[in-house]
Amino acid sequence: MTIVKTELNRRSFIKSSLLTGGGLLIGFNWLAAACSTSASKGQSIPDEWFEINGYLKIGENGVVTIMSPNPEIGQNVKTSMPMIVAEELDVDWKNVLVEQAPLNTAIFNRQLAGGSDSIKQSWPGLRMAGASARKMLMDAAAKKWNVPVEEITTELGILYHKNSGKKAGYGEVASAAAQLPVPKEVELKDLKDFKIIGTSKKNVDGHKIVVGQPLFGLDYKKEGMLIAMIVHPPAFGMKLKSFDATDVKTKPGIKDVFQIKLFNDDYKPQWCDTTSFTELVAIVGNSTWEVMSAKAYLKVEWEPFADYKIAMAGWGGDQLVNVPSGLESTADHNAKMVAAAAKPGKIERRDGNPEEAFKKAAKVIERTYTAPFLAHTPMEPMNFFADVSADNAILVGPIQSPEYMEKTLSARLGLPLEKIDIQMTRMGGGFGRRLYGHFMVEAALISQKVKAPVKLIYTREDEITFGIYRPAYHALYRAALDSNNNLTAFHVKMGGVPENALHANRFPAGAVDNYLAESWAIESNITVGAMRAPGSNFNAVAEQSFLDELAEAMGKDPIQFRLDLLKRAKENPVGEKNDYDAARYAGVIELVRDKSGWEKDSAGKNRGVAAYFCHSSYVANVVDITGDKDNPVIQKVYTAIDCGVVVNPDAAINMTEGAIVDGIGQSMYGQLTFSKGQPDQDNFDSYRLIRHTEAPKEIEVHFVQNEIHPTGLGEPPYPPVMGALANALYKATGDRYRHQPFIKNSFES
Amino acid sequence: MAIFKLKVNRKEYQVDVDPSTPMLWVLRDHLNLVGTKFGCGMAQCGACTIHLDGVAVRSCITFVDSVGDKEITTIEGLSENGDHPLQQAWIEHDVPQCGYCQSGQIMNAAALLKVNPHPTDEEIESAMNGNICRCGTYTRIKAAIKTAANS
């Protein structure tokens, strides 16, 4: 067992009691009423709840409610985070109810869905919450029975004192436990003693999902609520000049039409603010269809904007961002990228003497890889509920970054943080899109103006054409081989519009004596943001395809080639800043090699391999395909993952399967192109997503078994499968697929 | 605006809406049945799938004045207690990730099993091709449909 100092203090306990009102808590808000259960449907709800700490409360009958602190976006945290608390509390999972916590920074750390970090960063806090509650229950029992606490044991929600034969359910001592001081130290379980973590538990919202109960932001309702929609510029490079709402206002059900401005003039946007379209027209009415239909009657004049600079407060400190004027097109972007790649870039890492090694090379291999802009397209379009009055604001909806958006909202409304209440609904996907919560601010401004509760709804077209895309990328890779076909130098020059994707210190940096990484970027007024595995979602395809081409040129097996490089990186690494663990990297490659029967079972198969490290986890894939060039059929995908301890295995497999389908879909079909500043695709008839017939026939997922504390999983399985697919496509067709989307692409046409 | 009498999930309703209103918004805004989801508004994603006399249709392009006396079934009315074989199979396979598209997937699958109780893999894939799952749960959806077909 491990003894740890608790970080939960009395203040957070008291604050949480104030927040929830203490005592009887059932149904205090819509989300609490939407309490989800792992227990059987007949689970009896307690008459009285006792709050032990901000994470959990125990009923007099032993039923436990565990708060799930982070936004649920489909990554299963609403089930898996409470599992971690329940493990250390040592309670029967059957007796656990799960409730989505509201934003409360006094109790919870990092209520964010992003960076594949929910489980990784909350692991200690969740365990401590469960363990300290268990200790308080043990203290209460020891006091009641007048025995030393060291003699108390627990199992499945029951306290035992073996010597006297006494026992009591958690519910019987919960009232007394809630009055006790918070323990200064608590014991955490040994990993080998886990009973809940590592066993598959069903999604706590599963039943509600399959019977269509309200769960999502779009489903949220309040008496007297109005519906609002926005109209934004049709093209990047344009802004609102004027509008005429006369016709709209005559349409049935329409209440008001007005302009909203996202930021105050002196506001410095932070990382999750967007500058896509900050001045919009809002239309407010009684029902969704009335507002949606009336939208078409709005007369708007747009005008091009001039170059401007904007001060952004970002992760890397404040920076002044140039926003160029102009109506950009994909053809222009492509030409600019080709020109930029021909010039020297900014050197991000240099080992040995790469220039000299290339001069001396017997053979130089040079390849270019590209990828287009992508839109996130979560299935639930952007929406948010807001009820703003002079002295407080209630916001309910799907948001990945509530803590940050609360600050934006506070600045815009001039309300202190404590007057803003943000409640998180289940999200119909996000993939990074809902980190940028402009829609929440828009909803609040609309509610403030019309003095009524409002739900803002985007159409699919609004969502796809609003910006915050995955950038367009370009990568030039070069390798120098000596006369014995040994790799002597490696060079990557990576750029993009308006950002590049370079991770200069990742593999194969550290494995090659002479190494050069350069970057460049082209300014653009098209706004971008994080999309599932940012940067990595291009790097993995380009780098893993190039390594495959390299292995072939060197006459090496692509798996053995990678393992040889990783052996070098492990035993005698080049440079000191290599931000990956070569042994764990090799571990997943070996596992996928063995599980796919790479050495014994590859004859006659069109298979490709790739491996990648991101978000602190390691993933390797083997993809098998059949079919022809126009109709490739993905027969099977083998996946090996090292993400440390797996909390909820079946859910982890589900998310991995999804990431694989997503990766195949985006690399095969995904592209957003521009003409005169306007996106050429705006709904699923033109923006193509992968469908049932195109998904792999079979996906096999294997986890490396170890005792490393959990690392990321939402993002890591997404990037490498695209590289493995490109390499399998080469085997099946004889053509290298260097430009995404593989099915057709704007870069070559 | 006009009055429409609708039969939804074996109950009679009356709504006063514009005749051009899609059933999607009648269900969600006026009848408070929000299990039917808005995804694209142009019959491309299947999130809004309902049954009209047992046939799967996209409610985002099914206008209220075209329904007549046909019986509407939504995910809320697919079974009395959420125990349709597909709903049970969905839980058994723990299909959902975000869950948003799943009511449409289930409704489309239910209509498929009605006309083809034992579909092949290819028949499932092709019948389900109009339903997008952005989370990529396609392999589980297929497995769940097969489980339900065999139950």
Automatic annotation (TrEMBL), chain A:
The answer to whether UniProt assigns keyword Manganese to this entry is no
Annotated Aldehyde oxidase/xanthine dehydrogenase a/b hammerhead domain residues: 211-306
Keywords, alphabetical: Membrane, Transmembrane, Transmembrane helix
> Matching InterPro entries, A to Z?
Ald_Oxase/Xan_DH_a/b, AldOxase/xan_DH_MoCoBD1, AldOxase/xan_DH_MoCoBD2, AldOxase/xan_DH_Mopterin-bd_sf, N-heterocyclic_Hydroxylase, OxRdtase_Mopterin-bd_su_IorB, TAT_signal
Which Pfam families does this UniProt record tie to the protein? Answer: MoCoBD_1, MoCoBD_2
Record has Transmembrane as a keyword: yes
Which chain regions cross the lipid bilayer?
Answer: 12-32
Q: Which domain of life is it from?
A: Bacteria
Task: Give the Gene Ontology MF terms in alphabetical order.
Answer: oxidoreductase activity
PANTHER family recorded: ALDEHYDE DEHYDROGENASE (PTHR47495)
Q: What is this protein called?
A: Isoquinoline 1-oxidoreductase beta subunit
Q: Which organism is it from?
A: Aquipluma nitroreducens
UniProtKB/TrEMBL annotation, chain B:
State the source organism's domain of life: Bacteria
**Name of the protein in question:** Isoquinoline 1-oxidoreductase alpha subunit
Per its UniProt record, what Pfam families does this chain match? Answer: Fer2 (PF00111), Fer2_2 (PF01799)
Residue ranges of every copy of the 2Fe-2S ferredoxin-type domain listed in the record:
4-78
Q: Does the record's keyword annotation contain Metal-binding?
A: yes
* PROSITE patterns tied to this protein: 2FE2S_FER_1 (PS00197), 2FE2S_FER_2 (PS51085)
Listed InterPro entries: 2Fe-2S-bd, 2Fe-2S-bd_dom_sf, 2Fe-2S_ferredoxin-like_sf, 2Fe-2S_ferredoxin-type, 2Fe2S_fd_BS, Beta-grasp_dom_sf, Diverse_Oxidoreductases
Mind telling me which SUPFAM superfamilies this protein's record contains? 2Fe-2S ferredoxin-like (SSF54292), CO dehydrogenase ISP C-domain like (SSF47741)
Which terms does the record give in the GO molecular function aspect?
A: 2 iron, 2 sulfur cluster binding; metal ion binding; oxidoreductase activity
What are the record keywords, sorted? Answer: 2Fe-2S, Iron, Iron-sulfur, Metal-binding, Oxidoreductase
